[in-house]
Write a structure and sequence with these properties.
single chain, 210 residues, alpha/beta, Methyltransferase, Methionine Synthase (B12-binding Domains), Chain A, domain 1, Rossmann fold, 2 domains, five-stranded parallel β-sheet
């Protein structure tokens, strides 16, 4: 059943999800396809939360189930040749937001494509992000957001990067269900998406241009 795994995540079947993943891996299914099905389940959980059918407790439990699924799949995700990363990426959920599911998906997929990922976590202060950029000198910075309270801190981060002379050396991405092209322009970002896979494709394409 193609939706068996995603449905198990929606139904918060913590004990069933690992066994389903094992069966799919044993059957030779593509780990990236399995990850996509897990992501579909999380999208449906988010829809239930937005509709008021699920509450914070269900959201947190689904996050734990998803993180465990990602950890199980990580060793099976494809690697590119060579030990040297193709690029460096800093990811963060900025001050005012504590959601990290989309960011975690992006981090997993980027690592699978041999990017060096530095995940600063959630509720990150703009000044902290700037200091990490100064230290790491990444090609990309990705800001994840699910609620509008983080918009101003995202814009502040972009402004501080400009004031520090760091903005022109990187590409700033924003992602999440509430992001739009208008928000991209308001924040001062280079790229906006609601799809983690599109974020990976953007990074791969830009690195290929270098």
């Amino acid at each position: 059943m193609p939706r068996e795994l995603s449905t198990a995540i929606v139904e918060l079947a913590r004990d069933d999800v690992p066994a389903m993943i094992e069966r799919k891996l044993d059957a030779g299914e593509d780990p990236l396809a399995i990850l996509a099905e897990c992501r579909e389940g999380m999208t449906r959980v988010g829809e239930r939360f937005q509709a008021g059918d699920y509450y914070l407790a269900e959201l947190l439990l689904s996050a734990e189930i998803f993180k465990a699924a990602v950890a199980r799949l990580a060793p099976h995700l494809p690697d590119t040749d060579g030990d040297r990363p193709v690029g460096k990426v800093i990811l963060a959920t900025m001050r005012g937001d504590i959601h990290d599911l989309g960011k975690n998906i992006l981090a997993t997929l980027l690592r699978a494509h041999a990017f060096e990922v530095h995940d600063l976590g959630v509720n990150v202060e703009p000044a902290e992000l700037v200091e990490k950029v100064r230290e790491i000198r990444p090609e990309f910075v990705g800001l994840s957001v699910l609620i509008t309270t983080a918009f101003r801190s995202m814009q502040e981060a972009c402004r501080l990067l400009e004031e520090a002379g760091l903005r022109d050396s990187l590409r700033l991405m924003i992602g999440g269900g509430v992001t739009t092209p208008e928000l991209e322009e308001w924040v001062g970002a280079d790229f906006q998406t609601q799809d983690a896979a599109a974020g990976v494709a953007y990074c791969v394409e830009r690195v290929g241009e270098a």
